[in-house]
Amino acid sequence: MVPILAKQAINIKSKHKTNILLGNYECGYALGLIVNLSGILFPADYTDIEDLRIKVLKLLENYMPKDEREENLIHMLREYKADDNLDEQVKEMINMGIEEKKPWG
User: Fold this and answer.
1) What's the Cα-to-Cα distance from 9 to each of 12, 22, 23, 46, 77, rounded to whole Å?
2) Which of 24, 25, 61, 86 has the fewest other C-beta atoms within 10 Å?
3) What predicted TM-score, i.e. pTM, was given to this entire model?
4) Which domain holds residue 65?
5) Do the Cβ atoms of 20 and 3 come closer than 8 Å?
6) Ramachandran assignment for 24, one of left (phi > 0), alpha (psi -120 to 50 degrees), beta (any other)
7) How many angstroms separate the CA atoms of 59 and 88, rounded?
8) How confident is the model over 17-56, as pLDDT tens digits?
9) Does the residue 46 lie in any domain?
10) What is the CATH number of the domain that holds 47?
């Protein structure tokens, strides 16, 4: 997996509400990115990527997206069901999203 491809996929997919996440790498980056953009605290106590997805979405329940891209990102995360893969590359994608300085660039 090339991390930049998952990042670019999220950048493109966030422009349209009809898009979906296609794997845990995209999901990991999207989770890290929405944590970054929303300012919520990253959940430290998760068991796998699906558990993390559920916890992040719970923290976002009262969050008002700043724009359509954030809204679409949250929508994609709600619709995705992760498998149990939480390997080092998924963790790397989560961290890339959290540390992202130019989310849509």
Assistant:
1) 5, 9, 11, 25, 14
2) 61
3) 0.95
4) 3-99
5) no
6) alpha
7) 24
8) 899 999 999 999 999 999 999 999 999 999 999 999 999 9
9) yes
10) 1.20.58.1400
